[in-house]
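Run: sequence + zinc ion -> complex structure.
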Amino acid sequence: MKVTVLGSGSPKASSERCSSGYLLEIGSEKILMECGPGTVRRLVEAGHVPTEIDKVFLSHLHFDHWLDLIHFALCRWDTSGPDAKPLKVWGPPGIQEIVDKAFGADGLLKLDLTARTTHEQSVAIYHGRGGTGARPWPTFEVNEIEETTVVQGKNWRVSFAEVPHHQPYLISYGMRWEIGDKVFAYSSDITWSPEDSTPPPGLAKVAKDADLLVQYVNVFGGGLSGVAQPKNENGLLSMISRCARDANVKTMVTTHQSPHLNKEGVRERIIQEICNIFPGQLIWGRDHLCLDLNDE
Ligand SMILES: [Zn+2]
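>> structure
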């Protein structure tokens, strides 16, 4: 299995880091995990095209984790012929409403989709790809995730565990992918409290014995303007490091990094904070980082 980081950034617009997006390649299958702004661009830069992907998994509904779903679904549909399969989307409660409001008959995209399925030029392109008759609108199979949800594919399964992040307004799921004898874990976003330094059970559950953990590290400072203050023993970095150590994680990749984390000095402090506690391999995440779980 290969994991390509398509977006290692945050909601902040950045030329270096797109918002959350990851491509998983399992055998010949390609799956998107998260679809934040910039995902489609990075996907194409990495040599892939939307029509190769039928499955998207979303951890939570902050816009920096899903807004490119609309872009992705439109690009995938617009370049498809009559054999286009429905796009399968798994996300927290609320994802069905988003898809309906974007792609429904009276939805946000009504004018565009009406034109692309009615104008003679668009219809001719569709017929040129082998389509006959009226061109259908994009179709979806949407599944709202519960904690008991398990999705299985050829030689893989993914399970979910809720992690603390902006409840009760949103539900956020960490993900645990089991591929053969390998485990790939994803933290989703984590909201931490200095008063409660205990690792969230959901994070510990998805990370257990993971060969690779992609971990949210977006620490915010509380006194220095715009500068991270990672030296907080009860803070996020300590918590995630203890969690990964106790879960026996082999390799941690940092992600969800706002521009202030990349300043010289701040980046090194964060790495030091994590490595003081976590004994495994640490990789500073970046867009286009590609890791193969079969490489030791
Ligand atoms: Zn979030």
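>> summary
Residues 2-292 form a domain with the Metallo-beta-lactamase; Chain A fold (CATH 3.60.15.10). Residues 68-78 form the longest helix (11 residues).
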